[in-house]
Amino acid sequence: MRKKIVAGNWKMNLNVHEAKLLFQEISAIVSKDNGAHEVLIFPSSIYIESLLNINQSSIEIGAQNFHHQNKGAFTGEVSAMQLKQLGCKWALVGHSERRTIFHENDADLLNKLKAALENDLQVIYCCGESLNERESGMYFEKIGEQIGLLKTLSQNEMNHITIAYEPIWAIGTGKTASPAQAAEMHDFIRTKLESIFNLEVADSTSLLYGGSCSPQNAKDLFACSNIDGGLIGGASLQANAFGEIIAAI
Ligand code: PGA
Questions:
Q1: Residue 171 Cα, ligand 1 centroid: separation in angstroms?
Q2: I want to staple 176 with a disulfide (CB 3.0 to 4.6 A). Which of 4, 80, 130, 212 is the partner?
């Protein structure tokens, strides 16, 4: 059985008081929930420890970013090893904001995947095409390439990978992929995983949708057979909206 997951990516938002309050509000919602799925929060890394300390729910906390080396002279960086020691369970790799704004390339992402896996973190590996790639009909090629990066991982390592399909044109724009567009891509990703690995890996990897996912559209998106949950940005900053998305799964 694939895990159903709803993950909140808070990005570089909230002050420390707001972060703790929001976390407590979301925890209260999750505690009343039936617990059939996982809820993850990716806060700014400086808040991870405080949230771990107040966490009394089943929510798991992840890191939005990290350096691939475990330690060394990398001023300003935080390693996967340090995050793991703190109690972090998850990490994002390949988010489009990291790929575009911070110019992370395939080699960087592969190093990060390896570092996260060596440190026993679960990874949400993100992929997504730009508006240009969507409009020029190149979106399957693009996603195929991005998923192809995983081919050097072993089947055992793939047990620690969740994939999020996040079309860049839908992130933070209020413009969601239609359930048909999202479902088409999720079907493609699952088939791609089968061709790179095998049916077992394809069937057991959770595939999340991200990009302006909201209480209004979550139900229709999550109803698609190959959509196993969501990676939520903006709507995860409001407990009620996030709670409705959790309920939609
Ligand atoms: P959004 O962000 O929900 O605000 O579109 C999603 C993401 O970037 O993970």
A1: 5
A2: 212
82, amino acid identity: Q
What is the three-class DSSP state of 192? helix
Does this model's pTM top 0.85? yes
Domain boundaries, the chain: 5-248
Rounded distance between C-alpha atoms, residue 36 and residue 213, angstroms: 20
**pLDDT, tens digit, 9 for 90 and up, residues 30-80:** 987 766 789 999 999 999 999 999 999 999 999 999 999 999 999 999 999
Q: What's the CATH superfamily of 5-248?
A: Aldolase class I (3.20.20.70)
Name residue 232's amino acid.
I
- Report which protein residue has its CA nearest ligand 1's atom 2: 233
Q: How far is CA 66 from the centre of its chain?
A: 14
List the one residue out of 122, 139, 121 whose CA is nearest residue 130: 139
Q: What are phi and psi of 28, to 5 degrees?
A: -65, -40
In this predicted model, what pLDDT tens digit does every residue of 1-25 receive, in sequence order?
Answer: 799 999 999 999 999 999 999 999 9
CB 45 within 8 A of CB 64: yes
Q: Atom of ligand 1 at shortest distance to CA of 232?
A: 3
Strand ranges inside 84-186, DSSP E: 90-93, 122-127, 161-165
How many angstroms separate the alpha carbon of residue 154 from the centre of ligand 1? 29
- The residues that are catalytic are 95, 166
